[in-house]
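Teaching assistant here, posting this on the class forum so everyone can see the example we discussed in section. The complex has two components, and the goal was to see what a joint structure prediction looks like when all of them are supplied at once.
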Amino acid sequence: MDRPIRVLVAKPGLDGHDRGAKVIARALRDAGMEVVYTGLHQTPEQIVHAAIQEDADAIGLSVLSGAHLTLFPRVVELLRERDAEDITVFGGGIIPAADVVVLKEQGVAELFTPGTPTAQVVQWVRARVRPAATAA
Amino acid sequence: MARDSESGLPIEPVYGPDALEGWDPREKLGEPGSYPFTRGVYPSMYTGRPWTMRQYAGFGTAAESNARYKQLIANGTMGLSVAFDLPTQMGHDSDAAIASGEVGKVGVAIDSIDDMRVLFGGIPLDKVSTSMTINAPAALLLLLYQLVAEEQGVPADQLTGTIQNDVLKEYIARGTYIFPPKPSLRLIADIFKYCRAEIPKWNTISISGYHMAEAGASPAQEIAFTLADGIEYVRTAVAAGMDVDDFAPRLSFFFVSRTTILEEVAKFRAARRIWAKVMRDEFGAKNPKSLMLRFHTQTAGVQLTAQQPEVNLVRVAVQGLAAVLGGTQSLHTNSFDEAIALPTDKSARLALRTQQVLAYETDVTATVDPFAGSYVVEKMTDEVEAATLELMRKLEDLGGAVQGIEHGFQKAEIERNAYRIALETDSAERVVVGVNRYQLDAEEPYEPLRVDPAIEKQQAERLCKLRAWREQSRVDDALALLKKAADGDDNVLYPMKEALAARATIGEVCDALREVWGTYAPTDAY
């Protein structure tokens, strides 16, 4: 039967602000999803590796340092290289409107900026992400 | 309707004389500038001169930041406050793989003495006081500052400023840690000793609750966990053989200021009273300066909204007012566009103007501690103090701040509060103007300041040149001596200064220390 949606919440780069990531992790968990949090200071390579290892259905990236234009597309690109594009990538942080457009063009499915209610993120993940049909 | 304060304590609709029954102003307040310093650390406070207006700034290359500092000085700012980019804060060079995308973003990129010389070019270091938000590599940046001053002909004993240097709060909230707690505390003790001998007017640490508050801490949690960190630093320095009165006068603190004015004023007053008592009774400090909780304040960035961002100008004015009514020694007011991007020149100027209005167009500077004797504020001061002491006791029962960090105690408390605030905001029980009430149908577009992505390449080229030109054997010898000191008991700052003078980079010096001390790996849950 359907297992719960599994989300890897990740902090790429050197940014130490994890309030948003932790709040989203809790909200997704309280909504019945399985959530794995990577901890701080992860490279895109480490994140993609963890997502595949953990059999994640989605990766939620959080960056508040302004490095999103480098780090988010890199995660999408690595997933593609590893034939894991079925893992949905979404993100959040201090991301100017113009960058939201750029990131979506590059394969980030959705971006949530400050002031987004947690319920909206939960709803979006439910609507957009399906748990992979597990072999087991 | 009765409501709860941010610390979760009830606020009564009306307070009267009965709120202060048995309250003795001689015991609870004293005189301004005297124990227990509830009313402020100086007798005249702002009636003599206002607080130091210190605007945190820095981005891109050293040359760009240098231009912004000169502009801030021309606009009337009184002290510099340097923001470093994340690679610098984490002890990596700009060309390290992990630095990709981060160079120059949240602050200025500094790789070596060559960048530091550009950063302070044309700024007389004997005239300005400089605060540097740098923690794990604080010793390196302080020494680079001293080296640049020496090149300018300014002796070290004339330098004034602050390094944040508060690593414990990095484990709790801010995340830019490098080494494990034990060697980090040893490095801090080395810095205390070095500054006492070489840079005596320098504030050696800024023990910070700001970042905990930004991560979600309540006012009581903010000051409890911060003062507990302070106690840990004092214990470390005393254990390293220092006399408490030899370093305690140079300790300073850093707090947030929220829009909830009454509780913030109570918080600042309670914090002063608690610290004075701890220093006098627990550590036996004799010098009155050792008992004074001097602090910098920054307005709460987390309360700013990306929606209708101009409204943030009003929030910042209210927050800044709370800091002033609470007796801050210096203040940074945030720019209104910080929930969107780095501040522009104009928004940074408006932030400074906000402080100038508070200082010169209001009457709150005309008299010391204007809320003294207010039924509600005195009552809240007592209540915040009691809630704080209770939390500090819990931490002591765990074995102190470091043990608490190892148990994940402070982080868990803060994150629980952050989640509660998020849910209250979602349900609009907590009103955020423009976000969950009084929204616009469509937000106006806003064009933020951007950092030139070419800077990463420029820094890498500078590093390449530096490594080719410098005398490599001098660097290697200096780094070897540094490692030897780190492995033993000698003060690491002396060989570190030699390495930096020989043009070792931030990344190389930190790597040398990583080899000896290892790195911190948190046990991180959510």
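For the discussion questions: Residues 9 and 37 of chain A are 5 Å apart (CA to CA). Chain A has a mean pLDDT of 94. Think about how each of these relates to the inputs above.
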